[in-house]
Amino acid sequence: MGTTTPEVLVVGGGIGGLATAFVLRRAGVNVTLIERAAEFGEVGAGLQLGPNATRILDDWGLLENVKAIGVVPHNLVVRDAITNEELTRQELLGDFAERYGAPYVVAHRSDLHTVFLNAARDAGVTLVTSEQIDRVETVGDRAIAHAVSGKTWEVDAVIAADGLRSALRAQISDDAPVASGYVAYRGTCPIDEVPELQHHDDVVVWVGPGCHFVQYPLRGGEVLNQVAVFQSPAFERGEAEWGGPEELEAAYKDCVEPIREGLEHIWKDRQWQMYDREPIGTWVQGRMVLVGDAAHPMLQYLAQGACQAIEDAEAIGRAVANHVLAAQADNAEQANNAGWPAALEEFAAERTVRTAQVQRSARKWGASWHVDGAARVARNALYKGRDAHSYEYLDWIYAERNLAVTK
Fold first, then answer.
1. DSSP 3-state percent helix, strand, coil across the chain (nearest 5)
2. Are 128 and 33 contacting, i.e. CB atoms less than 8 angstroms apart?
3. Which among 39, 99, 255, 352 is most buried, taking Cβ atoms within 10 Å?
């Protein structure tokens, strides 16, 4: 018999790492989170949270906090970037929210990060900055994390949430990030600086040849978020430096006026080259497991990066509860010896299949947005012919896990 409290080290203080730390600490695990930067924070602009994520936030008691710092949009609208023709729309209130049991929410990345940071801190997670974990070894039934500074942490398990260029993933796989050749420019501005804006309550996506453009409101409708994504000619030419601001204007020269006007409010001093990775079959090595972008970095076309990290946190919390915490009161030694390996493997087995599907679908979705010529005509016809009340192409990603839903 024993009552030793399980201990976990989470590596990485982004949204995925904080969400995982919060869930495990809330369940009763002692959690230390290590962040390599001197301060916690997120760089970027808006992000979208589908009901597959907000349903989990609701279960965690965080949904109202997120809605308070975000916006619940009315519709998702897709338009042609050359003609401005509306191709399709999905109503996001009413039947949509009822079907999936949660709303669609858009929020500023830094605001969402703050919600998770506060939740983790309030739950009792130990937060450590300015330390970089570069190696984890499993010794018996313990994980030992080694920092560049020479410090070590010995725990029951290590959760690697160290992002796209994860140092810890390299212990499991020798793969590398895959460059898409597309680059994103983002920007936010007070919404009243764009008086001609027609879609104050919607997420609007213009799709065009080799580019797309996104607009939606943030922070209670006071801020406009915009994203410009385009294929870099420099990348296509094989140049080492690609996606620079000199390519931005040229990418949208044939696009409609709302896009041209929106470009005036895009940040020109920073850019995000778009990478993902190929799915891998396992995320586990001994007492270490990958989560979030360390496990399944994906292109942004399905707006699922943060959502899948939140799903990871829910799933690992459930697996630890099933295999570690449930056995803890009866036999702490057995819970540690057998429970942790079983929990990590169960989590990975569930999530590798789901996230691989999302990663591959995001690539296909992005390719369909950026076609030209006959393919663009066919795509537009397909979108316009879609039944706006059908959930045929949405259930797989938004419906509750293991819930049978009708189309």
1. 40, 25, 35
2. yes
3. 255
Beta bridge partners of 225: 188, 216
Instruction: Please list the residues that pair with 178 across neighbouring strands.
Output: 276
What pLDDT is attached to residue 364? 96
pLDDT tens per residue across span 81-134: 999 999 999 999 999 999 999 999 999 999 999 999 999 999 999 999 999 999
Q: Nearest Cα to 328, choosing from 100, 4, 105, 20?
A: 4
Contact assessment for residue 87 and residue 206, using Cβ atoms and an 8 Å cutoff? no
Indicate the fold that domain 42-114+179-276+371-407 takes in CATH: D-Amino Acid Oxidase; Chain A, domain 2 (3.30.9)
Region at 84 (left for phi over 0; alpha for psi -120 to 50; beta for the rest): left
Please say if the pLDDT value at position 3 is more than 70.
Answer: no
For the segment(s) 1-39+129-177+278-367, the CATH number from 3.40.50.10090, 3.40.50.2300, 3.50.50.60, 1.10.260.40 is: 3.50.50.60
Q: Residues 323, 346: contact at Cβ < 8 Å?
A: yes
Which amino acid, residue 339?
Answer: G
Evaluate whether 310 touches 21 at the Cβ level (below 8 Å): no
CB atoms within 10 A of CB 7: 18
Which amino acid is located at 25 in the chain? R
Tokens found for residue 144: 């030992």
The answer to whether 47 and 303 have CB atoms below 8 angstroms apart is: yes
**What is the identity of the amino acid at 65?**
N
Q: How far apart are CA 326 and CA 345, in angstroms?
A: 17
Residue 213, number of CB atoms within 10 A of its CB: 27
Query: In which residue ranges of the chain is CATH 3.50.50.60 found?
Result: 1-39+129-177+278-367
Compute how many other C-beta atoms are within 10 angstroms of the C-beta atom of residue 1: 7
Place of tokens 């691989």: 356
Angle (CA) 146 149 150, round 5°: 50
pLDDT digits (tens, 9 = 90+) for 144-198: 999 999 999 999 999 999 999 999 999 999 999 999 999 999 999 999 888 777 6
Residue in this structure with the two tokens 């916690």, named with its chain if needed: 40
Q: Which residues pair with 273 in a beta bridge?
A: 183
Is 45 exposed, middle or buried, given 0-12, 13-18 or 19+ CB atoms closer than 10 A?
A: buried
Give the integer Cα–Cα distance in Å for 193 and 92.
Answer: 26
